[in-house]
Amino acid sequence: MPNKDEDLLLAAYDYQLPEERIAQNPAIPRDSSRLLVVDSPSHHSHHIFRDLPNLLKSGDLLVLNNTRTIPARLYGRKISGTAVEVLLLEELENNSWLALVKPGKRLPPGTKILFEAQLLPPEEEDFQSKIQNPKSKIQNQLTATVVARDEGTGGRILQFELPPEVSLIKVLGQFGHVPLPPYIKNTQSHPEQYQTVYGERPGAIAAPTAGLHFTTELLKQLQEKGIEQVYVTLHVGVGTFRPVEAEDITAHKMHSEWVEVSPETVAKIRATQARGGRVIAVGTTVVRSLEGAAVSGELQPFCGKTELFIYPGYKWRVVEGLITNFHLPRSSLLMLVSAKIGRDRLLSLYREAIAREYRFYSFGDAMLILPEAKLPN
After folding, report:
1. Choice among 55-69, 128-142, 218-232 with the minimum mean pLDDT
2. Residue 137 pLDDT more than 60?
3. Candidate from 138-142, 205-209, 348-352, 361-365 with smallest mean pLDDT
4. Which family does it belong to (predicted)?
């Protein structure tokens, strides 16, 4: 039996990953990535992601996150000429944003930052055209003022100077870059490869990477087999990736992320459960969306912020199965997946995946955890 006290210790979620196992480029085609399938408390097998229609059952329901990553990394300068790097985290109101900034010590409230429009390579220009109206190209320079420090993140609140009718998201394509994770250091990918094929609601600063494996054709094949699909929206922010630092993980506080679970999605999930179908979450962001919308004990339509932190001992309310990538050591995502099948077993599967040369993290391979593999509540 696992030691429950050990499950709550940060050090218990460590593992050693050779650097060459960190995927630097996505699989081409998307559904050619590998898939480790966990189908019982003691059995697992190895597949290719395109096998998914044969691994699920007619009547199952896939729940996907339709957020779209924005070009949230900006490079600018102070009036003095000092270079500044900004990572937008969360839209607040009236074109003010919470952001991480470098160098933070030199950006007190009142500091002005200037950003210049840039020439983009053709593939990035095509990507940016999907999130902005061409008529919004109104200027070659963008100005923001630091108005406050945010104690929760160590970031800054920035007020962007734009006409009231113009949203910053609509012009970001002229100034920003898609922020790939720091462990992707040598990539030939283009921005559209760091988007799901179904992402349509701009607002995330990172992709919901479990969804990167799906192609339009694969989604069609799943539908033809009677495996339906519905969507939630969680704009992936710092909460998903903020490192857990507390040695007692129960002391960790998640940064909130914006979620919408529509009445239509709730109705589809309830209908699936009523007929004995299985609810399969595509990614940890979908898990946090659905479980966050069910904190009262029953899934309800929800639009707002969630700070839900899932770790071993969690009582599951909605999600039965899970498609997920391989996650960083000591991360809240690793703890979430451990809550589904157990920490010892998950780390054992990770060791086998490393030995079999699976590719890890955002551009890496995937794992399918079927409902039959979960720990009892």
Report:
1. 128-142
2. no
3. 138-142
4. Belongs to the QueA family.
Instruction: Please state which of the ranges 100-109, 182-191, 238-247 shows the lowest mean pLDDT.
Output: 238-247
Instruction: Output the 3-class SS for the chain.
Output: CCCHHHHCEHHHHCCCCCHHHECCCCCCCHHHCEEEEECCCCCEEEEEHHHHHHHCCCCCEEEEECEEECCCEEEEEECCCCEEEEEEEEECCCCEEEEEEECHHHCCCCCEEEEECCCCCHHHHHHHHCCCCHHHCCCCEEEEEEEEECCCCCCEEEEECCCCCCCHHHHHHHHEECCCCCCCCCCCCCHHHHCCCCCCEEEECCCCHHHHHCCHHHHHHHHHCCCEEEEEEECCCHHHHCCCCCCEHHHCCCCCEEEEECHHHHHHHHHHHHCCCCEEEECHHHHHHHHHCCCCCCCCCEEEEECCCCCCCCCCCCCCEEEEECCCCCCHHHHHHHHHHCHHHHHHHHHHHHHCCCCECCCCCEEEECHHHCCCC
Predicted TM-score of the model (pTM): 0.90
